Amino acid sequence: VQLQASGGGLVQAGGSLRLSCAASGRHFNFKLQTVGWYRQAPGKQRELVAQHSFRSEATYADSVKGRFAISRENAEKTLYLDMASLKPEDTGVYYCTVGDTWGQGTQVTVSS
């Protein structure tokens, strides 16, 4: 499985971004995988931002509840992270996961 994340960038506080992560490869069933987004801020440990199970159960870090939304399009083997009301503390490298596979990361920078 290979993952390609995109959609990061520089945004002002209060703005929005949508991250995408496209999965490709053979011999895996995307719709049966738990997918997620993690982030790592400079000098900090990587943390779980949001996760979406194959049962369509979504969980979020407390810091992003009500602002971020994770979704998936199984037919396209793609997961998304819609981020709104962004804060400077949301800055970091965002990684997507599908099962045990990690994407390469996409930088999100929120300026104050």
Structure description:
With 112 residues, the chain is mostly beta strands. The protein is 0% helix and 53% strand. The protein has strands at residues 2-6, 9-12, 17-24, 35-40, 47-52, 58-60, 68-73, 78-83, 92-98, 101-102, 106-111. The strands form two sheets. Strands 2, 4, 5, 6, 9, 10 and 11 form a seven-stranded mixed beta sheet that branches. A four-stranded antiparallel beta sheet has the order 1-3-8-7, with no helix packed on it. Strand 7 (68-73) and strand 8 (78-83) form a beta hairpin. The radius of gyration is 13 Å and the shape is globular. The N and C termini lie far apart (37 Å).
In short:
The chain is mainly β and 112 residues long. Helices cover 0% and strands 53% of the residues.
Q: What value does the Rg take, in angstroms?
A: 13 Å
Q: Counting H and I runs of at least 4 residues, what is the number of helices?
A: 0
Q: Spell out the helices and strands N to C.
A: EEEEEEEEEEE
Estimate the helix proportion, in percent: under 10%
Largest sheet: 7 strands, mixed
Query: Which percent band covers the strand fraction?
Result: over 45%
Name the poorly predicted regions. none
